[in-house]
Amino acid sequence: RIASRSILSLLLQPAAYRARTITTSSSQAMSSIFGYSSVEEPSFVVAVKTDVYEVRAYGPQIRASVTLEGPMDKNMGPGFRAVAGYIFGGNTARGDGAESQKVAMTAPVTMTTSSTSKVAMTAPVTMQTSDKQTTMSFIMPSKYKSIEDLPVPKNAKVTLTTVPPVKLAVIRFSWGFNETRAKHFEHKLREAAAKDKLLLNADPDAVLRLAYNPPWCLPWCKRNEVAIPLADQ
Questions:
Q1: pLDDT, tens digit, 9 for 90 and up, residues 34-83
Q2: Backbone angles phi, psi at 30, to 5 degrees
Q3: Is residue 59 within 8 Å of 162, Cβ to Cβ?
Q4: What is the DSSP code string of 116-165?
Q5: CB within 8 A of 2, min separation 6: which ones?
Q6: Full-model pTM
């Protein structure tokens, strides 16, 4: 649907502009096959770097997120489409008579999993649980300084949240990205950090999975990461 809309809008442009756009789009698409990206990434400072991982200090972020029932492998597609729908116009701009806005794409896409789901307190007390949940988030471009600067999601499942500054231990890998590989590199990261006496957050729900590339990127060129907050935060 997104591709069709982009092609339609392109065809409505003057021929000279269309030729330049096609050349630029083709160049960007070709570059993305080999892992290159022109989208904005959140800035960070590397505090520690080892052969296995690095510790990064990130500033505050605003994220657009959706939480779905089920594990990461099941929800990568539906989660991506839900949040992508928001940034590609599935929103209402703030202000009287304002129209929808497009929000620039950024990288990485972040994913977290959770073993339980809690419902707000009522009377009587109830708790809703599931085997696993997945939260997928897009980091908003840095030009947006507050949630009030962003358009309102039309999809009630998409939420906007502010994330405070954080220090993360990050391990990088290529090829496929699924639950099994994420768990493997999480274990490798925790093992290396323990040897260095670096204390990490022990909560499995705090682990972030970061994906930077589109599906058509060559597997050996892909940039995937698992990140865990430091324990002293």
A1: 667 778 888 999 999 999 999 999 999 999 998 888 887 887 888 888 98
A2: -65, -40
A3: no
A4: ---PPP-SS------S-EEEEEEEPPTT--SGGGSPEESSTT-EEEEE--
A5: 84, 88
A6: 0.76
- Edge-to-edge strand list for the sheet holding 133-139: 44-49, 54-58, 166-173, 224-229, 208-211, 109-114, 133-139, 61-69, 159-163
Contact (Cβ atoms closer than 8 angstroms) between residue 151 and residue 101? yes
Give the residue from 223, 208, 190 showing the smallest Cα distance to 113: 208
Largest CA distance in the chain: 66
DSSP label at 39? S
Amino acid at 157: K
**Residues 127, 119: contact at Cβ < 8 Å?**
yes
Query: Are residues 86 and 106 in contact, defined by beta-carbon separation less than 8 angstroms?
Result: no
- C-alpha angle 12-15-19 in degrees, rounded to nearest 5: 105
Burial class (CB in 10 A: 0-12, 13-18, 19+), 207: buried
Residue with tokens 């993360």: 168
